[in-house]
Design a protein that fits this description.
Blueprint: H1 4-18, H2 32-37, E1 42-47, H3 49-54, H4 56-65, E2 68-71, H5 77-80, H6 90-101, E3 105-112, H7 121-125, H8 129-147, E4 151-158, E5 175-176, E6 179-180, H9 183-188, H10 191-203, E7 208-213, H11 221-239, E8 246-249, E9 252-254, H12 261-273, E10 277-286, H13 295-315, E11 320-323, H14 360-370
Parallel strand pairs: 1-2, 1-11, 2-3, 3-4, 4-7, 7-8, 8-10, 9-10, 10-11
Antiparallel strand pairs: 5-6
Helix pairs in contact: 1-6, 8-10, 11-12, 12-13, 13-14
The structure holds ligand 9MR.
Ligand 9MR binds near residues 72, 73, 115 and 158.
Length: about 375
């Protein structure tokens, strides 16, 4: 199979090759990634390939602020294997081409997830365990074969834990024990998690293997339950000598959710004690039901909340922070009908506003990096 390195450059088109992407609008060296790097922290963001290719303001902001990129959609199953056996690395190649041209690192998201599955996948899994195993092995082989050596860190499994009863998340997929009831779980039981991790390690011995999930940060009974469930899962995997290197905390924060540093710090330290790295993988922040008057007050609340959570994670030893997009303009928070505001306002939960101006959350991240 042709590697992604070649495909990436092809996917980016001649414009990107003959005419480098827009120069960063700001002088180099003062972006979040630079501030983070000075303190041993890697900062990055989720990106959308179409915007990287077509929107120079967007591309310049990514170039200036982020060192680590993760495709928001382009590395999901539905993007990479839309029809069984037919891999399409075109959209991912656009992101990879940008990363190469701008000398950014890339992480992968996500090999196994219950969303963004192509239409053929759930029926194939329903055909039985042997078929499910074969499909999983073929995907991991096809994807890692093409993305090595460009991507050195993958979310191998994403959101495998159920949301504990009482949680306020909109996704209330039923649970089977601690696990989310998905086509993967129905086909293979919880063993699909171990199988995916083992297949990934076999295919690429030095790849960092990450389990990624959300709802692990707050000071609520259900967040605590989910942290305990994650620890139980990690303990079981390690006891089975299953390869696993890191846990990703998505950190889709909500200012209305209670937060205290101790539970999160304790969780991160426990994971470190088990030999795992902990990353913040999808940081953004939803505003509360009742907005204070004035943009400055709104942004101040988001910034203070983000600083508490990120500051806590960094103090506990987390060394990688990615936001799920840089600007309010392009965020799922304002696109997804389940999380978008219903009062006509747009969430302001990203470091840059809709005009790509740095706002209080940007400063909060900068301060968190400086004091890490
Ligand atoms: O932000 C992503 C959105 O644009 C996609 O439509 C959606 C389905 O592919 O996925 C969103 O990203 C999710 C991520 O992959 C996993 N954690 C939750 C993110 C927000 O829903």
């Amino acid at each position: 199979m042709l590697g992604l390195v070649g495909l990436g450059l092809a996917g980016c088109g001649t414009r990107a090759r003959s005419q480098p992407m827009t120069e960063p609008a700001r002088p180099p060296g003062d972006g979040l990634a630079d501030l983070a790097r000075a303190h041993g922290i890697s900062f990055g963001t989720a990106v959308q390939g179409e915007l990287l290719a077509q929107d120079q303001v967007y591309a310049a902001a990514v170039a200036a602020e982020a060192q680590l990129l993760v495709p928001e959609w382009e590395a999901k199953w539905e993007a990479l294997q839309p029809r069984e056996g037919e891999f399409d690395f075109g959209p991912l190649g656009v992101v990879a081409g940008f990363a190469q041209a701008q000398r950014k690192q890339l992480r992968g998201h996500a090999l196994v997830w219950h969303n963004a599955m192509p239409d053929w996948l759930a029926p194939a899994l329903a055909e039985g365990p042997a078929r499910a195993r074969a499909v999983l092995a073929a995907h991991i082989e096809g994807v890692l074969g093409a993305t090595q050596p460009l991507i050195r860190d993958w979310d191998v499994v994403n959101e495998v834990l159920a949301n504990p009863p009482g949680s306020r998340f909109t996704d209330q997929t039923p649970a089977r024990g601690i696990f989310r009831d998905t086509p993967w779980l129905r086909a293979l039981g919880p063993d699909y998690i171990e199988l995916a991790l083992r297949l990934a390690r076999e295919r690429d011995r030095t790849l960092r293997l990450t389990i990624n999930d959300y709802g692990l940060e707050g000071d609520t009974p259900w967040a605590e339950q989910k942290r305990q469930n994650m620890l139980a899962l990690v303990r079981a995997l390690l006891a089975a000598r299953c390869p696993l290197d890191a846990v990703g905390l998505q950190a889709h924060l909500q200012v209305d959710e209670p937060f205290r540093p101790e539970p999160l710090a304790g969780f991160i330290q426990t994971l470190h004690g088990m030999g795992l790295a902990v990353l913040i993988t999808e940081l953004d922040c939803r505003e509360g039901a009742n907005l204070p008057p004035g943009q400055e007050a709104r942004d101040g609340i988001v910034a203070a909340y983000v600083q508490q959570v990120v500051g806590t994670a960094l103090a506990a030893g987390c060394r990688t922070v990615l936001t799920w997009g840089l600007s309010d303009r392009d965020s799922w928070l304002n696109r997804d009908p389940d999380v978008a505001r219903r009062d006509g306002q747009q969430h302001r939960g990203h470091p840059l506003d809709a005009e790509f101006r740095r706002k209080a959350m940007w400063q909060a991240l900068a301060r968190s990096f400086a004091s890490a």
